[in-house]
Amino acid sequence: MTYIDNAIDVVTRQLPSEDPAPIRLYALLALVVGDDVTREHVHDAWAMWRSTTMPQHPAIRPFDELSATTQDLDQPYVDAIRYAVHSLAPSVPVRHASPACACGINEAGQRYIDPICVVAR
To answer: Quick one: pLDDT at residue 118?
Structure first.
């Protein structure tokens, strides 16, 4: 299994009912944007995918033109991507916005993630 497969797998487990095509884009965001991922990044990735499957979708527009309610729909994806960032660290090279985030391997050899780093952003 490659680091790409690992990233896709972690994001898929967080978003199990999501279509596999955008999952690949969300996994890419985890790898290249890391903790800095925003709802706008998620929307742009979704819009990139959706434009190939339903080009007339009314939400395919710049993020700042969407209603606040529609923008809020992207937050669970941001949370899933940030969870993936912390789940993959340190075995996969992903970006962390804050070096203060606690994630890694504990004394028992188990991976741990500080949920505050994932949820509080």
So the answer is: 44
